[in-house]
Amino acid sequence: MGTERHYDVTIVGAGIAGCALALALGGRGLSVALIEAQPMSDEPLPECIGLAHFDPRVSAITPQSRRFLQTLGAWDAIDNYRHCAYRHMTVWDGQGSGQVEFDCAEVGAEFLGHIVENRAIVHALQKRLKAAVDVTPINPSKLASCSRGESGDLLLELDKGEQIVSRLVVGADGAMSRVRSLMNFDTREWDYGHRAIVTTVEVEKPHNSTALQRFLSTGPLAFLPLPGEFEHHYCSIVWSVEEALADELLALDDTAFCKELGAAFEYRLGEVVACSPRFAFPLRQRHAKDYVQAGIALVGDAAHTIHPLAGQGINLGLQDVAVLSEEILSAASRGTNPGQLENLRRYQRRRKGQNLLMMAAMDGLKRVFEPQILPLRWLRNTGMRALSQFAPLKKQLMRHAMGLGE
Predict the structure, then answer these.
(1) What does the DSSP 8-state code read for residue 43?
(2) Total-model pTM
(3) In the predicted model, what is the mean pLDDT of the chain?
């Protein structure tokens, strides 16, 4: 038998959501364990700016998410490293003339959001965790089993034989969540039959702090602005394509791929000069029917995965963390067990509807832009032009997407 340790809250997964939750709970009188299967690296981030030095995984951080990262003390490290604030967004239909422009000035903001490398966010959060009070990182260590004890506490066994007893276990372990699987959470899910190709590209023309997205019949293509230097201009791309086309594009050499990419993007930023190694992942919509059980809560991708076309996944996850931490700390202030189902259901009520609304919107957008039937194409383009001209509705959509409220 391994050594048994007791915690108030045990978080499984030290990615963005897990680290953020540990920081939000640290130093508030709760004992917190943070379990991560991979080593938590102390290696510095690359300072060079170039194709080989960007993380291919980036996120579009909203002002609301940035404020939350600021409250955790993590934003300064991101700000001092690198990111790209984008002030403008252009979205257009690849099969017509419909186009919508979004500008931060329309809602009196400095920016619409920030494009940040995922590893920079994780690095900033993990750096803060080193000084966090009452947080115990346990890594590298994998969750082997999770069961409910007679007292109602959760019993966790790790792959090295260590045993943990916790009043609350939080699954922050991603789309293939071990916690979700072990505790038999039901999900609704379906494949899109698409893969997202991600890479960093150098383009001929400056992006001018603009995020660009073209809706094609095969799926959306986004160019997200990254920091550049001298005469070198960089973007992170997310290209969602049907399975057969994904195989074709991945099989191309870099020169041929850049040529295909430039044509698909109508050369809005001139020629695509070069690209970094390409990665692809299957697109699947997944949503847990419940986010909570007694003593268990799911956050982020463990609770819901969303189509990446608007880059909202990480923002939904951070909002989950912000709300769950509020409910846990509120329970602690009342002397209530943080794993009590009534407390956790409040978290679910506050987040589930918002997440479902965003997931439905993204799924709806994808489906609206796929059909090439002429009447639907006409309606799409007419709708985009109408939205572009109807300022009140456009402002409302922008404020909602940015997390600015009404």
Answers:
(1) P
(2) 0.91
(3) 88
